């Protein structure tokens, strides 16, 4: 709605915006062409075997086009140029090593691996024996990945020995990345033996990431009370908070008959407030029963942690309207904590459209709640309703409420949602007649915000005829921000009248 401050040149910003919007796609296309051209220019030096220039150009390319589709190509050729310049075989080895780590999906990955092994052997022959160990470790990792893939393929074909081999491979391995891949493979086995192995890792493994990985797959396989009990044991233990949070998430993935009782247990009894909050969140995703709503209401009314109570209100709001609206209405009307009433009112606003129960509750709150913030939130909730009933109540408040603060807020939101001449007339009436200047000024601003310039004529009328000169000045200011030709003409007319 707001445009250039000068009405004399009001067309210029419009042309600029149009040009900018039309140019956006063109700019992206030009950038694509630029990075392709820059990559090709650098790659030409590879073809010419000018390694120094190739390295320099690829390094500049990666600074300018870090996220380009050619970035992994540029990183590989930078390593290749490093190697050819022979600054240091160690640097080239480290470059390939870093490339393999960060670009595992690149089409150059196999070339980088071959070059890494070749350089490692040369460094080892030159007396740097530590590179032999690096090569062996790297080769072993590649071989083990092939073994894992083969074992998983055998499992898919029904081979019962594959799981035992994977468990043996996990227990005899020290490479965390390989162990993580093994856990993924084990997690895809549908068997008690696989789940027992995952539970052992989840409870006893030293590495947190491996424990989280095992817990994740337990959640995908959580079809028994035995698994749920194991996850509850982890969640209630004194272990790392990340591990416990993963256990709560894993419980939430189980069938409702298993997950809901466990989540209720955690939400009510766990000593860790953050964990209770997580359990409440996941309960909210399943809150389509009277039992769950009653549990959440109990937490709202009795939990000692304010964040937990607010999380419970949010969880209630996620239920279907059949359960959420009556519960939120009760909290909004009757809870002793103003902050909780405010939260309930906010979430009622998300369900206000077409609901008489919600609209009646919001009107009741506006007339009876002792806390101004709660009443203000109810006005916003009426705006969120975005239907005629909500708008009618906003008009009623803007015209008649005894509290000028609430009249001002209702007037503001009327301007944000106004799409009819009726609302424009109401705003003009408020601008002309309200006893409080702040409310009158808010009405003028609200007219400037009405879509499709529906408020322009009302602003012109105020600018010309309002008995309060300050109100006329406000209207003139907002006319100056408009892109409506009628506003420009009116301002020119006002200037002529002033000159005379």
Describe it for me?
It is built from 27 helices and no strands. The protein has 500 residues and is mostly helical. It has a domain at 29-128: Tetratricopeptide repeat domain (Serine Threonine Protein Phosphatase 5, Tetratricopeptide repeat). Helix 16 packs parallel to helix 18 (338-349) and helix 20 (372-385) runs antiparallel to helix 21 (388-400). It is flat. Residues 1-27 have low confidence and may be disordered.
Give the SSE map.
Blueprint: H1 11-47, H2 51-64, H3 71-85, H4 89-102, H5 109-125, H6 130-156, H7 161-171, H8 176-187, H9 192-204, H10 208-220, H11 225-235, H12 241-252, H13 256-269, H14 273-284, H15 290-302, H16 306-317, H17 321-334, H18 338-349, H19 356-368, H20 372-385, H21 388-400, H22 404-417, H23 421-433, H24 437-449, H25 456-465, H26 469-480, H27 485-499
Helix pairs in contact: 1-2, 2-3, 3-4, 4-5, 5-6, 6-7, 6-8, 7-8, 8-10, 9-10, 9-11, 10-12, 11-12, 11-13, 12-14, 13-14, 14-16, 15-16, 16-18, 17-18, 17-19, 18-20, 19-20, 20-21, 20-22, 21-22, 22-24, 23-24, 24-26, 25-26, 25-27
CATH topology (level 3) name of the domain at 29-128? Serine Threonine Protein Phosphatase 5, Tetratricopeptide repeat
Instruction: Report strand %.
Output: under 5%
**How many β strands by DSSP?**
0
Residue ranges: pLDDT <50 for 5 or more in a row? 1-27
Shape estimate: flat
- Helical content stands at over 70%
Name given to the CATH architecture of the domain at 29-128: Alpha Horseshoe
Number of H- or I-type helical stretches: 27
Overall average pLDDT? 85
**SS class:** mainly alpha
Distance between the termini: 32 Å
Over all CA atoms, what is the radius of gyration? 34 Å
Pattern of helices and strands: HHHHHHHHHHHHHHHHHHHHHHHHHHH
The biggest beta sheet, please?
none
CATH superfamily of the domain at 29-128: Tetratricopeptide repeat domain
CATH class wording of the domain at 29-128: Mainly Alpha
């Amino acid at each position: 709605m707001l445009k250039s401050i000068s009405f004399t040149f009001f067309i210029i910003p419009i042309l600029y915006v149009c040009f900018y919007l039309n140019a956006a796609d063109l700019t992206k296309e030009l950038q694509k062409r630029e990075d392709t051209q820059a990559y090709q220019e650098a790659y030409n030096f590879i073809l010419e075997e000018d390694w120094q220039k190739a390295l320099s150009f690829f390094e500049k390319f990666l600074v300018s086009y870090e996220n380009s589709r050619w970035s992994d190509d540029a990183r590989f050729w930078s390593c290749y140029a490093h190697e050819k310049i022979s600054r240091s075989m160690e640097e080239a080895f480290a470059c390939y090593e870093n490339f393999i780590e960060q670009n595992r999906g690149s089409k150059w990955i196999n070339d980088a691996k071959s070059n890494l092994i070749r350089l490692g052997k040369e460094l080892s022959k030159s007396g740097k024996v530590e590179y032999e160990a690096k090569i062996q470790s790297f080769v072993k990792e590649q071989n083990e990945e092939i073994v894992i893939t083969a074992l998983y393929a055998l499992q898919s074909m029904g081979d019962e020995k594959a799981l035992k081999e994977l468990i043996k491979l996990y227990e005899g391995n020290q490479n965390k990345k390989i162990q993580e891949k093994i856990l993924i493979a084990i997690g895809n086995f549908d068997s008690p033996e696989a789940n027992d192995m995952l539970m052992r890792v989840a409870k006893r493994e030293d590495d947190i990431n491996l424990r989280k990985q095992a817990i994740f797959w337990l959640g995908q396989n959580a079809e028994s009370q035995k698994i749920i009990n194991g996850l509850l044991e982890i969640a209630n233990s004194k272990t790392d908070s990340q591990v416990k949070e993963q256990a709560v998430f894993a419980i939430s993935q189980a069938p409702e008959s298993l997950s809901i009782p466990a989540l209720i247990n955690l939400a009510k009894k766990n000593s860790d407030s953050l964990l209770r909050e997580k359990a409440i969140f996941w309960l909210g995703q399943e809150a389509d029963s009277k039992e769950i709503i009653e549990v959440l209401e109990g937490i709202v009314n009795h939990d000692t942690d304010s964040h937990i109570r607010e999380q419970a209100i949010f969880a209630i709001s996620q239920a279907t309207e059949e359960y959420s609206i009556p519960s939120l209405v009760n909290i909004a009307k009757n809870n002793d904590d103003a902050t909780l009433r405010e939260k309930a009112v906010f979430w009622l606003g998300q369900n206000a459209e077409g609901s008489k129960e919600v609209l009646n509750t919001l009107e009741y709150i506006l007339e009876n709640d002792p806390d101004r913030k709660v009443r203000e939130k109810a006005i916003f909730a009426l705006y969120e309703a975005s239907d005629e009933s909500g708008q009618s109540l906003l008009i009623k408040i803007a015209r008649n409420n005894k509290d000028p603060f609430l009249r001002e807020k209702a007037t503001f939101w009327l301007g944000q949602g106004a799409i009819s001449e009726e609302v424009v007339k109401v705003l003009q009436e408020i601008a002309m007649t309200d006893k409080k200047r702040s409310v009158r000024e808010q009405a003028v601003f609200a007219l400037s915000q009405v879509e499709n310039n529906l408020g322009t004529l009302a602003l012109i009328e105020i600018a010309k005829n309002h008995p309060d000169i300050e109100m006329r000045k406000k209207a003139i200011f907002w006319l100056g921000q408009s892109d409506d030709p009628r506003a420009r003409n009116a301002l020119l007319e006002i200037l002529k009248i002033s000159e005379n």
